[in-house]
């Protein structure tokens, strides 16, 4: 989820997570600034690997590009899984033969393992989105960052039946050199976005569609949400966006690793 003003987010209200003050989303420029050279700390990566999954290190720079090249689009969906909205999005993605990356919150994955398994069975990829969705976790200690990332990795892997997350997306873009290197050491490529659809704010279906059409030239990774409230607008926007982009010659794939 992108950072938003207004204090505590819905996770703070629902599960009592200690969230920091949310900051205003700064758009694609944040990712450009964060994607340069990184420091080289040596974090301890102690979370167990899921069976049959490779934990070989990957790049610690923040990914934006698509594996499908210049005409590729990455659909990324944050904050779930949710028992109401994630299945609806899975149905829609199946209808249009689109694969997506689901950035899951650890507590949500732990609560809904059946849905995590459905996401994997449908051929989508998993992304670690921390345990409690603290959008100010970049201000916390390395020990806290480590727990948020590694515990979520463990929770998602267990919920999936052994399939590990392939990416790490910091809540609100709250990356640090330490968190990027830690995730990368676990085989999880740090994942940014180019187009923040602002669907979390429920601006209206037309506004979400217009944002995608206006900002897609900024890059291929689109940010949507499948939890945190009524996602009717997101579902309807995707229903329009997916066939429209296909008609324009785009293909849907996964972020680079």
Write up what this structure looks like.
This protein is of the alpha/beta class and 257 residues long. It is 37% helix and 11% strand. It has nine helices and eight strands. Strands 1, 2, 3, 4, 5, 6, 7 and 8 form an eight-stranded parallel beta sheet that branches. Strand 1, helix 3 and strand 2 (101-104) form a beta-alpha-beta unit. The chain is globular and about 45 Å long. The protein starts with 9 loop residues before the first helix and ends with a strand.
Please outline the helices and strands.
Layout: H1 10-15, H2 28-34, E1 72-78, H3 85-95, E2 101-104, H4 106-111, H5 113-121, E3 125-128, H6 142-160, E4 167-168, H7 177-185, E5 189-190, E6 195-196, H8 205-215, E7 221-225, H9 232-247, E8 251-253
Parallel strand pairs: 1-2, 1-7, 1-8, 2-3, 3-4, 4-5, 6-7
Helix pairs in contact: 3-9, 5-6, 6-7, 8-9
Give a quick summary of the entry:
The protein has about 260 residues and is of the alpha/beta class. The chain has helices at about 10-15, 30-35, 85-95, 105-110, 115-120, 140-160, 175-185, 205-215, 230-245, and strands at about 70-80, 100-105, 125-130, 165-170, 190, 195, 220-225, 250-255.
Number of helices: 9
Secondary-structure element series: HHEHEHHEHEHEEHEHE
Q: Mean pLDDT score, rounded?
A: 85
- Ranges with pLDDT <50 over ≥5 residues? 4-52
Distance between the ends? 20 Å
Strand content: 5-15%
Helix content: 25-40%
Describe the global form.
Answer: globular
Number of strands: 8
Query: Which structural category do the helix and sheet elements fall into?
Result: alpha/beta
Please state the CA-atom Rg, rounded to the nearest Å: 17 Å
For the largest beta-sheet, the strand count, sense and barrel status come to: 8 strands, parallel
Q: What's the assembly state of these chains?
A: single chain
